[in-house]
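Could you join me in thinking about how sequence relates to backbone shape in a protein? We need material for that, and I hope you will provide a protein of your own picking. Label the sequence line and the structure token line clearly, so we can match residues to local backbone shapes. Would you write everything just below, so we can both look at the same thing?
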Amino acid sequence: MKLSLSIFIIIMFFGLFPASVYSLSIDGVAFSNATVVPYFVEEKDKLLTIADVINNKDWNKPEKETINFGFTTKPYWFKFTVQNNTKEILNLFFRISYPMLDEILFYVPRSDGTYYEIKTGDKYPFKYREVVDVGFVFPVAVYPGLNNYYFRIQTTSSFNFGCDLYSAKGYLKVLNTDQPLIWMYYGLMIVMVVFNFFVFLSIRDIAYLLYTFFISSWILLQMSLNGYAFQYLWPDSIWWGNNSLPFFMALTIFLCGIFLLRATDVLWNNKKVKIIYSIFVLIPGFTLSLGSLALPYHAAIVSTTGFTIMAVVILFTSQLYAFIKGSRIARFFAIGFAGLAIGVLLYTLKTFGVLPVNFITQWSIQIGSSIVVIFLSFALADRINVMRKDIEVLYEEKKISESEALKKASHFEAIVNAVNVMSNDFINVSKELESISKTFSEVSGKQVEMTSHIQESFSGLQMSLEELHNALKAQKEQGKKSQEYVVTMEHAYTALLSENKRFLGIIESIVSTAKNAENTLNTMISSMNVLQQGSQEIEQFVAVIDEISDKINLLSLNASIEAARAGEAGRGFAVVADEIGKLAAATAEQSGMISKRVATIASDINSIVVLSRESNTALSNIFSLIGTVKEGIVSFQQVVNNQTDELHKVKEQVMHIDTLSNEIFQLSEKIKDVMANTLEAITTISTMADGIATTNIKIKEYSTSISEKSDRLSILVKG
């Protein structure tokens, strides 16, 4: 029944849309061909003018009645011809249906054969259009005879459109037919938004809020696609008028994916489906919705359209999967979104140029979305029916529960009476137990008082033991330190003894070296004495030479006198005498110099002899001091040896003391543990009283009585 009703509504919805071809009759002249199929030529590298286009002979004939070049940014020129066989000027309207074209230059002929230009497109504000329409409408005057019309289109959107030529009456008929239906469609969508929003406020189900967002985005997408958003919402926002279409396309797919995922329990509870939705629908949809605002329009619309095809396939497949898995609501979603998916697919294929532009492809999205709204209404109605049935079942269960409750109430009344009787018995038992507890408290009080005195004594003893334990612990630590100090002193004495031996060896080396120096010094003194004696002998030789020189000089003087007396015969002898005199003078002079040099050498030798003797005396003193130092070192070494022996004895005593300290410390640890155990035992004993045995017997008797009464109560409850 529901399926038949939905098919009927869909057929009625299709039937309300008028055909795009109208017959026009003016003064008996029928204008039957309302659909215009223009010829076209591509504007390649060269920018063409209207004059170039008029003279062009190479026009291409389209293969279909509609123009569809897919996504291209190349400009195209179009031409169509109207034959007016009447004698009157026909005022017609030429309409291009697709509202997303960027720029249209339409050239209308005048009566004189020239053309004037009309410039429009969605790159210009809406208020500049010749005729207020979501499409592009141009008033044209058709003169009698043959009329040629030209227009140029360039766009970054999908390059597809259909052309129609209307009379004024035919154009008004189209408006009066299309406008009510399209606003009925938007009204239906808005009603669904408001209704589901109030349902969300009532039951707080997030699926209804997501559905509200989805339908709202869908309405804005359809208004952007059909041109109504540019006409009514943002007529002066050129950039947003273009970029709103890819933005709302991606956003609608994103919201649709979230809604279907959340509303279908089979999908929502499947982690793999969530991952697939996130990777292929949600993340790309959200990214493209924001990225479309930054990308160039051509890149944004191409990428968003391709993503829409992929997302529709995934969404429809997921609903089929949920339907197969037995999801009740998925039946309506699958049927409704199947219609929408087919509509979106047809429109997308039309956009890419695969399918022609006709009534079905042009309005396929509106038809599909209407199917979705209808079947979602069925889903809501079915959900209400399910809730009503659940309430009826709950009501029947409530009646049965009330009947059983009345039966159990009477049974519980008898149980309550029995419980009241038993409660009186329990009160008496509690009084007797209270008396016993008083007796037990008195005994326990005395025991606690005695135990407290014992605890105080043991506490003092434990404190003393703790102090002794701490003192032994400190003594143990000091013993370890003393042992460490003794070991350190032992090492120090050993090192000192070693250094003493090494220093004694050095003293021996110094003594040996000093003895060698003494021998060398004595030898040098002997040599100096010999040199001193030689210098004295040289002085004697110099004195003899001086005496001989004086005699030679005197002899030379006498020879000169005799030669003078001899006259000419003694002249040669005089020369010899003169030379002998000079030689004697030179000899005397050299002898004087030798005498001075020898005197200087003798003086230096005397000084060296004196210094050598003083050095010998000092060296003897050093020998005496070294002997004294050596004797002191030997004595010190003997003392160190004696101290080392004593230090070994001290070390043995310290080790013995440390051993005794460890034994005493361990003994104190054991005593401490014994004291702790004793104190714990005393505390345990303090909790026990002498009257426990007597009171236990009475408690046992009363426990038996309580057990019997409890058994009776249990029998009553089970009965």
